[in-house]
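Form P-L/3: holo structure prediction, ligand 2'-deoxycytidine-5'-monophosphate.
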Amino acid sequence: MLASTHAMIVIAIDGPAGAGKSTIAKALAKKLSLRYLDTGAMYRAVTFAALTRNLDLSNESAIAKVASECVMLIDDDSIIIDGLDATQEIRGQKVTRAVSIVATNSLVRTELRGRQQQWVSEHGGGVVEGRDIGSVVFPDATLKVYLTASPLVRAKRRVAQSGGDVELIAAEIAERDQRDSSRSDSPLMKTSDSVMVDTSNIDVNEVVEHIERLVVARQQNKRASS
Ligand code: DC
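OUTPUT (holo model):
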């Protein structure tokens, strides 16, 4: 049980594609009665809007304009951008292939980072998943978790979700990981103060319970030291 009188709780869940972030972050949010924010969906929605407008994704200022001017309504299981429900489309191949290009755009990152911080403040905290949540967006998060899993397990999970060939998907994931971890602005990385959890051979419930215990322990430590 979480303490009822607490400062805003923010749990950062970072890690590469297929590490189990969404499943675990959603389940954790439910258990802790917190809201869940999928920041990857925000990058995907901007990519969707840019593709819909036939924009050249390498035109940084044009894509940044889309990010800053769009009206984005994000919920636990849906995302609406400029009045269009993009929940399904953002998971499609076109967006998935293009999104890491948009995610290297620093202007887009600055805009979305601000929206993420605002969202969390408006919702009184949350479980936030992404790549730079513990490192950049919420460096003072209550708890930072870095989820990982072996490349093969990650590829198999993606195939189970959306179909396709394991080898092909593994190659695509590797390419995206490489872009996400090597970009100059807020790359995917494990911060020294985050807890690493390898989900390759652990059941979702076990991971969630483990993280829940860590959150409770953090709160107890905080109370003891205040
Ligand atoms: O988690 P996902 O696969 O939906 O993320 C989509 C892309 O957005 C992926 O290339 C990583 C990027 N991303 C990011 O750079 N920073 C975030 N906070 C979340 C996602």
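COMMENT: Residues 17, 39-40, 43-44, 99-100, 103, 130-133, 176, 180 surround 2'-deoxycytidine-5'-monophosphate (CB under 6 Å).
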